[in-house]
């Protein structure tokens, strides 16, 4: 577990040893598992347009929205070495566009969905979530979190740094990527 805590990785031998103990393996993140990302968007108050489709790639997605204000949620699932969900790291970004400019990015924060009992969201890395370019043709949003996995009364055994990065365009299109 020290190797996992210090490097965020497991050797194949370490992983095989952990898998011999299912109760422990259920609480250990699988560093080799691919990211499972998802997202959706909803129109915000006063916006009568339907949300555009969300297309997903391996670790990214695109919200195909139009002008108006939008509430978006982007997430990435972190599985244990047994394949169970340790947590789903979510980022919410609310924004408004007028067809050519990003007029506001007024909500940007993270939260956990369905966390295991060993998962603790400790805050943001690098300060609070950031956005740049509001008022221009694009805005870049960065939400970077810090999660610790801790066995009660023993110690914390892993620190993880999930991220959601988003580029919002004045047209309403929003591209994002997420990693665990």
UniProtKB/TrEMBL annotation:
<protein>
    <submittedName>
        <fullName>Uncharacterized protein</fullName>
    </submittedName>
</protein>
